[in-house]
Amino acid sequence: MTVLDSAGLRGVDTTAGLVNQSDPKWSITAASQKSRPKTSAMSTAITNALTANNASYAASFTKGDLALPPAKKYLVLTCMDARIDPAAALGIELGDAHVIRNAGASAVDALRSIIISEQLLGTNEILLIKHTGCGMLTFTNKDAYAIVSENLGADASNIDFLPFPVLDEAVKNDVEFLKKSEFVPDAVKISGWIYQVETGKIVSVV
Ligand SMILES: [Zn+2]
């Protein structure tokens, strides 16, 4: 399989067109950025705390020579939920794996990253991990459209927020989506899991 290595990315314009800025789904972001004043380095209580944390992290950092492709050739797709720490929960070492996160661990939402991970960077196994207590179980698209409209006066009805009503069904559906996708080779191993935010355990679904 052809994959990129560190050398392979040199000279590549990483700003080039993976995102189509004229796509309507980006228009909300573009419009709101326009109305915001431009500041250079914004300093907040959060940025101050995190830069201080980073200074001590970088002071003892010794892993600057890792290869670009994940050493263990797998990817984890999980939710952005703040209660999940994939590296700690699964023992993922720096440089081992891709960890893709979005609201609900949606395979549809993550497909762009999954294709890049597999086709350009050589991963060949996917662990899809949704979780108990996920926010995506708590609303419908209609609810989200109403909230966005109320808060922002914006019409989000062209966005599928990909909520789901039943957790284990959603895991199965997403695994099925990946297995059927022409962008995911049959040889890629795919498993579906539920992470229990109450216990820290992962449970196999499919
Ligand atoms: Zn979640």
TrEMBL record:
Cofactor: Zn(2+)
InterPro entries tied to this protein: Carbonic_anhydrase, Carbonic_anhydrase_sf
Pfam family, one: Pro_CA
Superkingdom of origin organism: Eukaryota
Gene3D superfamilies according to UniProt: Carbonic anhydrase
PANTHER family, A to Z: CARBON DISULFIDE HYDROLASE, CARBONIC ANHYDRASE
Protein function: Reversible hydration of carbon dioxide.
Protein name according to UniProt: Carbonic anhydrase
